[in-house]
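Retro notes - structure team

What went well: the batch runner handled both jobs without manual restarts.
What didn't: labels got mixed up in the shared folder, which is why I'm recording both outputs here explicitly, each with its sequence directly above its C-alpha coordinates.

Job 1
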Amino acid sequence: MATELKKKLPAKARRRKGFEISQVGANCEREYTEYDDDDENVVGGDVNLLKRGDLSDSVRDMMIGFGDHMEPMEESIIVMQDFVVEYIQCMTKKAVDIATVKGKLDTECFIFPIRKDHETYERVKDLLQANGELKEVLNSGFDPADEKVY
Protein backbone atom coordinates (compact mmCIF):
# COMPACT_ATOMS: atom_id res chain seq x y z
CA MET A 1 0.00 0.00 0.00
CA ALA A 2 2.87 2.37 0.76
CA THR A 3 4.27 1.92 -2.74
CA GLU A 4 0.82 2.57 -4.24
CA LEU A 5 0.56 5.80 -2.28
CA LYS A 6 4.08 6.74 -3.29
CA LYS A 7 3.27 6.27 -6.98
CA LYS A 8 0.07 8.34 -6.78
CA LEU A 9 1.64 11.37 -5.13
CA PRO A 10 3.52 13.85 -7.29
CA ALA A 11 7.26 14.11 -6.70
CA LYS A 12 6.91 17.42 -4.86
CA ALA A 13 4.52 15.93 -2.28
CA ARG A 14 6.91 13.06 -1.49
CA ARG A 15 9.90 15.31 -0.89
CA ARG A 16 11.19 15.22 2.67
CA LYS A 17 11.15 18.41 4.63
CA GLY A 18 14.08 19.51 6.74
CA PHE A 19 13.45 19.11 10.42
CA GLU A 20 14.24 21.51 13.20
CA ILE A 21 17.51 21.10 15.06
CA SER A 22 15.69 21.20 18.39
CA GLN A 23 14.21 17.82 17.49
CA VAL A 24 17.68 16.41 16.77
CA GLY A 25 19.13 17.62 20.06
CA ALA A 26 16.25 16.18 22.06
CA ASN A 27 16.55 12.81 20.34
CA CYS A 28 20.33 12.65 20.85
CA GLU A 29 20.07 13.40 24.56
CA ARG A 30 17.40 10.75 24.95
CA GLU A 31 19.54 8.16 23.18
CA TYR A 32 22.60 8.85 25.31
CA THR A 33 20.73 8.61 28.58
CA GLU A 34 18.67 5.65 27.43
CA TYR A 35 21.71 3.45 26.85
CA ASP A 36 23.92 4.62 29.72
CA ASP A 37 22.74 2.05 32.26
CA ASP A 38 21.37 -0.55 29.86
CA ASP A 39 22.53 -4.04 30.92
CA GLU A 40 22.33 -5.37 27.34
CA ASN A 41 25.28 -3.18 26.36
CA VAL A 42 27.64 -4.60 28.98
CA VAL A 43 30.04 -6.98 27.25
CA GLY A 44 32.89 -8.35 29.31
CA GLY A 45 32.73 -5.41 31.71
CA ASP A 46 32.81 -2.78 28.95
CA VAL A 47 29.88 -0.42 28.66
CA ASN A 48 28.95 0.87 25.20
CA LEU A 49 27.13 4.20 25.49
CA LEU A 50 25.40 3.81 22.14
CA LYS A 51 24.39 0.76 20.17
CA ARG A 52 26.30 0.52 16.91
CA GLY A 53 25.63 -1.47 13.79
CA ASP A 54 28.14 -4.07 12.72
CA LEU A 55 30.11 -2.68 9.79
CA SER A 56 32.67 -5.47 9.70
CA ASP A 57 31.36 -7.05 6.47
CA SER A 58 31.30 -3.70 4.66
CA VAL A 59 34.72 -2.73 5.99
CA ARG A 60 36.14 -6.12 4.96
CA ASP A 61 34.77 -5.66 1.42
CA MET A 62 36.18 -2.13 1.21
CA MET A 63 39.59 -3.29 2.43
CA ILE A 64 39.68 -6.03 -0.20
CA GLY A 65 38.50 -3.54 -2.84
CA PHE A 66 41.33 -1.16 -1.97
CA GLY A 67 43.96 -3.88 -2.35
CA ASP A 68 44.22 -5.60 1.02
CA HIS A 69 44.63 -9.37 1.36
CA MET A 70 41.60 -11.49 0.39
CA GLU A 71 41.19 -12.49 4.05
CA PRO A 72 42.10 -9.42 6.15
CA MET A 73 42.96 -10.00 9.80
CA GLU A 74 40.08 -9.50 12.25
CA GLU A 75 42.17 -6.98 14.20
CA SER A 76 42.62 -4.89 11.04
CA ILE A 77 38.89 -4.96 10.39
CA ILE A 78 38.14 -3.89 13.96
CA VAL A 79 40.63 -1.00 13.78
CA MET A 80 39.26 0.16 10.43
CA GLN A 81 35.69 -0.11 11.73
CA ASP A 82 36.66 2.06 14.70
CA PHE A 83 38.14 4.65 12.31
CA VAL A 84 34.97 4.65 10.20
CA VAL A 85 32.68 5.03 13.21
CA GLU A 86 34.87 7.80 14.65
CA TYR A 87 34.86 9.65 11.31
CA ILE A 88 31.07 9.36 11.00
CA GLN A 89 30.60 10.60 14.56
CA CYS A 90 32.96 13.53 13.98
CA MET A 91 31.27 14.55 10.72
CA THR A 92 27.82 14.20 12.26
CA LYS A 93 28.81 16.38 15.22
CA LYS A 94 30.17 19.03 12.85
CA ALA A 95 26.96 18.89 10.81
CA VAL A 96 24.80 19.25 13.92
CA ASP A 97 26.93 22.20 15.08
CA ILE A 98 26.40 23.87 11.72
CA ALA A 99 22.70 23.05 11.85
CA THR A 100 22.34 24.81 15.20
CA VAL A 101 23.45 28.02 13.51
CA LYS A 102 21.42 27.37 10.36
CA GLY A 103 18.28 26.21 12.16
CA LYS A 104 17.76 22.89 10.37
CA LEU A 105 19.76 19.80 9.49
CA ASP A 106 20.10 19.12 5.76
CA THR A 107 22.70 17.89 3.26
CA GLU A 108 24.42 21.28 3.16
CA CYS A 109 25.33 20.83 6.83
CA PHE A 110 27.29 17.70 5.88
CA ILE A 111 28.85 19.22 2.76
CA PHE A 112 30.13 22.39 4.45
CA PRO A 113 32.84 20.72 6.63
CA ILE A 114 34.37 18.90 3.65
CA ARG A 115 34.40 21.87 1.26
CA LYS A 116 38.20 22.28 1.55
CA ASP A 117 38.94 18.60 0.87
CA HIS A 118 38.66 18.75 -2.93
CA GLU A 119 38.70 15.00 -3.56
CA THR A 120 36.01 14.19 -1.00
CA TYR A 121 33.93 17.22 -2.00
CA GLU A 122 33.95 16.21 -5.68
CA ARG A 123 33.00 12.63 -4.80
CA VAL A 124 30.10 13.79 -2.63
CA LYS A 125 28.98 16.21 -5.33
CA ASP A 126 29.02 13.42 -7.94
CA LEU A 127 27.10 11.04 -5.67
CA LEU A 128 24.46 13.67 -4.87
CA GLN A 129 24.08 14.44 -8.57
CA ALA A 130 23.70 10.73 -9.39
CA ASN A 131 21.15 10.41 -6.58
CA GLY A 132 19.18 13.34 -8.00
CA GLU A 133 19.22 11.82 -11.49
CA LEU A 134 18.06 8.47 -10.10
CA LYS A 135 15.19 10.17 -8.26
CA GLU A 136 14.17 11.98 -11.45
CA VAL A 137 14.08 8.71 -13.38
CA LEU A 138 12.11 6.93 -10.67
CA ASN A 139 9.65 9.82 -10.35
CA SER A 140 9.14 10.07 -14.12
CA GLY A 141 7.32 6.74 -14.22
CA PHE A 142 10.06 4.99 -16.19
CA ASP A 143 9.82 1.22 -15.94
CA PRO A 144 12.85 -0.71 -17.25
CA ALA A 145 10.68 -3.82 -17.64
CA ASP A 146 8.70 -2.03 -20.38
CA GLU A 147 11.79 -1.45 -22.51
CA LYS A 148 12.35 -3.79 -25.44
CA VAL A 149 15.69 -5.54 -25.71
CA TYR A 150 17.01 -5.71 -29.27
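Job 2
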Amino acid sequence: MKTSFSIFLLVLLAAFLGCAANLQRPSIQEQPLAPGDRLRVSYSNGVSKRFVGNLVALRADTLFLKNHTVPLASSVTKVEVSRGSAGTALGGLVGLGLIGFLGGAFIGGIIADATDDCADLDCLPVDFSGLFLGGFVGGILGAGVGIANSGERWEELPDVKYVLNQRSEESAQGSENLNVEKLSGRMEKEVEKNGSTALTLGIMLSAVAGLVAILIF
Protein backbone atom coordinates (compact mmCIF):
# COMPACT_ATOMS: atom_id res chain seq x y z
CA MET A 1 0.00 0.00 0.00
CA LYS A 2 2.79 2.38 0.98
CA THR A 3 4.73 1.66 -2.22
CA SER A 4 1.70 2.01 -4.49
CA PHE A 5 0.77 5.33 -2.90
CA SER A 6 4.31 6.65 -3.34
CA ILE A 7 4.40 5.62 -7.00
CA PHE A 8 1.04 7.23 -7.66
CA LEU A 9 2.07 10.58 -6.20
CA LEU A 10 5.46 10.62 -7.95
CA VAL A 11 3.90 9.84 -11.34
CA LEU A 12 1.44 12.66 -10.64
CA LEU A 13 4.38 15.03 -10.09
CA ALA A 14 6.03 13.85 -13.33
CA ALA A 15 2.85 14.44 -15.32
CA PHE A 16 2.51 17.89 -13.76
CA LEU A 17 6.09 18.84 -14.68
CA GLY A 18 5.67 17.46 -18.18
CA CYS A 19 2.52 19.51 -18.73
CA ALA A 20 4.25 22.61 -17.33
CA ALA A 21 7.13 22.09 -19.74
CA ASN A 22 4.74 21.72 -22.67
CA LEU A 23 2.92 24.92 -21.68
CA GLN A 24 6.30 26.65 -21.61
CA ARG A 25 6.82 25.79 -25.28
CA PRO A 26 5.03 28.12 -27.72
CA SER A 27 2.60 26.33 -30.00
CA ILE A 28 3.94 25.40 -33.41
CA GLN A 29 1.69 25.60 -36.44
CA GLU A 30 2.37 23.94 -39.73
CA GLN A 31 3.71 26.42 -42.24
CA PRO A 32 5.77 26.25 -45.43
CA LEU A 33 9.29 27.58 -45.77
CA ALA A 34 9.65 31.16 -46.91
CA PRO A 35 12.52 33.57 -47.58
CA GLY A 36 13.81 34.90 -44.27
CA ASP A 37 13.25 31.66 -42.33
CA ARG A 38 16.14 30.70 -40.08
CA LEU A 39 17.57 27.34 -41.19
CA ARG A 40 20.24 25.00 -39.91
CA VAL A 41 21.67 23.00 -42.80
CA SER A 42 23.91 19.96 -42.33
CA TYR A 43 25.82 18.67 -45.33
CA SER A 44 28.81 16.55 -46.17
CA ASN A 45 31.18 17.23 -49.01
CA GLY A 46 34.08 15.15 -47.86
CA VAL A 47 33.90 16.88 -44.47
CA SER A 48 30.70 17.19 -42.42
CA LYS A 49 29.65 20.81 -41.89
CA ARG A 50 26.66 22.69 -40.50
CA PHE A 51 25.58 26.25 -41.23
CA VAL A 52 22.92 28.44 -39.67
CA GLY A 53 21.46 31.37 -41.56
CA ASN A 54 18.36 33.02 -42.96
CA LEU A 55 16.92 31.59 -46.15
CA VAL A 56 17.44 33.85 -49.17
CA ALA A 57 16.53 31.73 -52.20
CA LEU A 58 16.56 28.28 -53.74
CA ARG A 59 17.76 28.26 -57.32
CA ALA A 60 18.39 25.19 -59.43
CA ASP A 61 20.75 23.00 -57.37
CA THR A 62 21.93 25.60 -54.84
CA LEU A 63 20.49 26.76 -51.52
CA PHE A 64 21.30 30.37 -50.62
CA LEU A 65 21.46 31.33 -46.95
CA LYS A 66 22.55 34.72 -45.73
CA ASN A 67 26.37 34.61 -45.73
CA HIS A 68 26.37 30.96 -46.88
CA THR A 69 25.89 29.09 -50.16
CA VAL A 70 25.20 25.35 -49.97
CA PRO A 71 25.24 23.03 -53.02
CA LEU A 72 22.20 20.78 -52.68
CA ALA A 73 22.18 17.96 -55.14
CA SER A 74 24.63 15.56 -53.50
CA SER A 75 25.62 17.04 -50.18
CA VAL A 76 22.66 17.97 -47.93
CA THR A 77 21.99 15.48 -45.12
CA LYS A 78 19.58 17.44 -42.93
CA VAL A 79 17.65 20.71 -42.99
CA GLU A 80 16.06 22.12 -39.84
CA VAL A 81 13.92 25.22 -39.45
CA SER A 82 13.94 27.37 -36.33
CA ARG A 83 10.63 27.64 -34.50
CA GLY A 84 11.77 30.29 -32.05
CA SER A 85 13.18 30.16 -28.55
CA ALA A 86 11.69 28.27 -25.63
CA GLY A 87 13.56 30.50 -23.16
CA THR A 88 17.01 30.45 -21.61
CA ALA A 89 18.53 27.56 -19.69
CA LEU A 90 18.58 29.73 -16.55
CA GLY A 91 14.89 30.52 -16.95
CA GLY A 92 14.02 26.85 -17.32
CA LEU A 93 16.25 25.93 -14.38
CA VAL A 94 14.66 28.47 -12.05
CA GLY A 95 11.07 28.21 -13.34
CA LEU A 96 10.46 24.48 -13.49
CA GLY A 97 13.03 23.88 -10.72
CA LEU A 98 10.92 25.98 -8.36
CA ILE A 99 7.70 24.30 -9.51
CA GLY A 100 9.30 20.89 -9.03
CA PHE A 101 10.60 21.84 -5.58
CA LEU A 102 7.21 23.01 -4.34
CA GLY A 103 5.37 20.04 -5.88
CA GLY A 104 7.95 17.57 -4.61
CA ALA A 105 7.90 19.04 -1.10
CA PHE A 106 4.11 18.81 -1.04
CA ILE A 107 4.09 15.21 -2.22
CA GLY A 108 7.00 14.27 0.05
CA GLY A 109 5.15 15.65 3.04
CA ILE A 110 2.01 13.68 2.16
CA ILE A 111 4.00 10.46 1.73
CA ALA A 112 5.81 10.97 5.04
CA ASP A 113 2.58 11.75 6.85
CA ALA A 114 0.78 8.74 5.36
CA THR A 115 3.54 6.24 6.08
CA ASP A 116 4.93 7.19 9.51
CA ASP A 117 3.92 5.35 12.69
CA CYS A 118 4.26 8.26 15.09
CA ALA A 119 1.74 10.80 16.37
CA ASP A 120 1.45 14.52 17.06
CA LEU A 121 4.70 16.44 17.63
CA ASP A 122 6.82 13.30 17.41
CA CYS A 123 6.04 13.20 13.69
CA LEU A 124 7.54 16.62 12.92
CA PRO A 125 11.08 15.35 12.17
CA VAL A 126 9.66 12.67 9.87
CA ASP A 127 7.35 15.09 8.10
CA PHE A 128 10.11 17.67 7.61
CA SER A 129 12.46 15.01 6.25
CA GLY A 130 9.76 14.07 3.75
CA LEU A 131 9.31 17.71 2.75
CA PHE A 132 13.05 18.16 2.28
CA LEU A 133 13.59 14.94 0.33
CA GLY A 134 10.52 15.49 -1.86
CA GLY A 135 11.51 19.08 -2.56
CA PHE A 136 15.07 18.05 -3.39
CA VAL A 137 14.01 15.29 -5.80
CA GLY A 138 11.26 17.43 -7.35
CA GLY A 139 13.59 20.41 -7.72
CA ILE A 140 16.22 18.37 -9.57
CA LEU A 141 13.55 16.80 -11.78
CA GLY A 142 11.97 20.15 -12.60
CA ALA A 143 15.33 21.82 -13.27
CA GLY A 144 16.34 18.99 -15.61
CA VAL A 145 13.11 19.24 -17.60
CA GLY A 146 13.43 23.03 -17.71
CA ILE A 147 17.00 22.97 -19.03
CA ALA A 148 16.17 20.24 -21.57
CA ASN A 149 13.40 22.41 -23.03
CA SER A 150 15.33 25.68 -23.15
CA GLY A 151 17.12 27.35 -26.04
CA GLU A 152 16.28 27.59 -29.71
CA ARG A 153 13.85 24.96 -30.98
CA TRP A 154 14.82 23.27 -34.25
CA GLU A 155 12.34 21.24 -36.28
CA GLU A 156 13.81 18.79 -38.78
CA LEU A 157 12.18 18.65 -42.20
CA PRO A 158 11.96 14.91 -43.02
CA ASP A 159 12.87 13.67 -46.47
CA VAL A 160 14.01 17.17 -47.35
CA LYS A 161 17.00 15.85 -49.27
CA TYR A 162 14.72 13.99 -51.69
CA VAL A 163 12.52 17.04 -52.19
CA LEU A 164 15.49 19.35 -52.73
CA ASN A 165 17.09 16.92 -55.15
CA GLN A 166 13.83 16.83 -57.09
CA ARG A 167 13.88 20.60 -57.02
CA SER A 168 17.41 20.69 -58.40
CA GLU A 169 16.23 18.71 -61.42
CA GLU A 170 13.50 21.22 -62.20
CA SER A 171 14.02 24.44 -64.06
CA ALA A 172 15.02 27.50 -62.07
CA GLN A 173 11.97 29.36 -63.34
CA GLY A 174 10.05 30.84 -60.39
CA SER A 175 12.57 29.40 -57.94
CA GLU A 176 12.48 32.40 -55.64
CA ASN A 177 8.89 31.50 -54.70
CA LEU A 178 9.85 28.40 -52.74
CA ASN A 179 7.51 25.48 -53.25
CA VAL A 180 7.81 22.88 -50.52
CA GLU A 181 4.25 21.57 -50.38
CA LYS A 182 5.55 18.00 -50.33
CA LEU A 183 6.93 18.67 -46.85
CA SER A 184 3.72 19.95 -45.27
CA GLY A 185 2.16 16.71 -44.09
CA ARG A 186 5.45 15.38 -42.70
CA MET A 187 6.16 18.64 -40.86
CA GLU A 188 2.93 18.28 -38.88
CA LYS A 189 3.91 14.81 -37.69
CA GLU A 190 7.30 16.07 -36.56
CA VAL A 191 5.64 18.84 -34.55
CA GLU A 192 3.41 16.34 -32.76
CA LYS A 193 6.41 14.17 -31.90
CA ASN A 194 8.45 17.11 -30.59
CA GLY A 195 5.51 18.30 -28.49
CA SER A 196 5.58 15.10 -26.39
CA THR A 197 9.32 15.21 -25.68
CA ALA A 198 9.03 17.16 -22.44
CA LEU A 199 6.39 14.87 -20.95
CA THR A 200 8.37 11.75 -21.89
CA LEU A 201 11.53 13.15 -20.33
CA GLY A 202 9.68 14.09 -17.17
CA ILE A 203 8.24 10.60 -16.74
CA MET A 204 11.61 8.90 -17.36
CA LEU A 205 13.38 11.07 -14.83
CA SER A 206 10.53 10.60 -12.37
CA ALA A 207 10.86 6.82 -12.57
CA VAL A 208 14.43 7.04 -11.27
CA ALA A 209 13.50 9.59 -8.60
CA GLY A 210 10.52 7.45 -7.63
CA LEU A 211 12.68 4.39 -6.99
CA VAL A 212 14.95 6.41 -4.70
CA ALA A 213 12.03 7.90 -2.77
CA ILE A 214 10.27 4.53 -2.41
CA LEU A 215 13.42 2.87 -1.03
CA ILE A 216 13.85 5.64 1.52
CA PHE A 217 10.22 5.76 2.60
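One thing worth noting from job 2: Confidence is low (pLDDT under 50) at residues 1-5, 23-30, 121-126, 170-199.
We'll revisit the folder naming next retro.
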